[in-house]
What we know:
The protein is an alpha+beta fold. About 45% of the residues lie in helices and about 10% in strands. The two termini are about 30 Å apart. The chain binds inosine-5'-diphosphate (IDP) and magnesium ion. The site of inosine-5'-diphosphate (IDP) has 14 residues, from helix 4, helix 5 and helix 8.
Amino acid sequence: MKNEKTLIVIKPDGVQRSLVGEIIKRFERIGLKLTAVKMIVPTADFIECHYTVDPEWKRVTGEKTIESYRKKGLTPPIEDPFKVTERVLKNLQNFMTSGPVIAMVWQGLHAVKLSRKIVGGTEPFSSDVGTIRGDFVLDSYQTSDKDGRSIRNLIHASGSIEDAKKEIALWFKPDEIINYKLVSEQILYDVNLDGILE
Ligand code: IDP
Ligand code: MG
């Protein structure tokens, strides 16, 4: 399980806000290991491939958006989750192709779920304090919807181990992912700690 991997992408707003170091620090300090990193400007087609590696993403994202309107006592502008996602995807393509992004593979125990925890909920306005989205950005669905754009939430993190595998294969060639040991892994994972005391 300590070999679990997740894909993290610092979105164009994270790069523009000079938060690359801050964001990397959050993953490093929890004990995850960086095994691949690159900067690219994605194309719109690539972004569609990325978000649709999970065949359920279109339905789930549409339903989540509709639900967030209802929670606020608002009527969703469209009732069909797939139509809602079509709009979300178009806006995401505009956003994600607007500038460079940093793609990374982080590895370690519970890498996928831990990363989602430190990234926080999709909407920065309602995501928890202490998370990357909660601490470093202020966007809300209300504002992004009013302006007809994607919510700016700094970062992408794979939603499941399955998605992570597919996303990593999309963003990285196998030889771009480095297998190596970190000395800190001994204190994180080893059962036998003999050898620390001299
Ligand atoms: P996640 O990034 O927290 O996993 P997803 O539901 O997978 O969230 O959506 C992918 C991305 O699409 C979000 O991070 C966000 O940038 C954008 N997005 C999703 N739903 C909405 C929406 O209702 N309005 C604006 N942007 C959205
Ligand atoms: Mg997602």
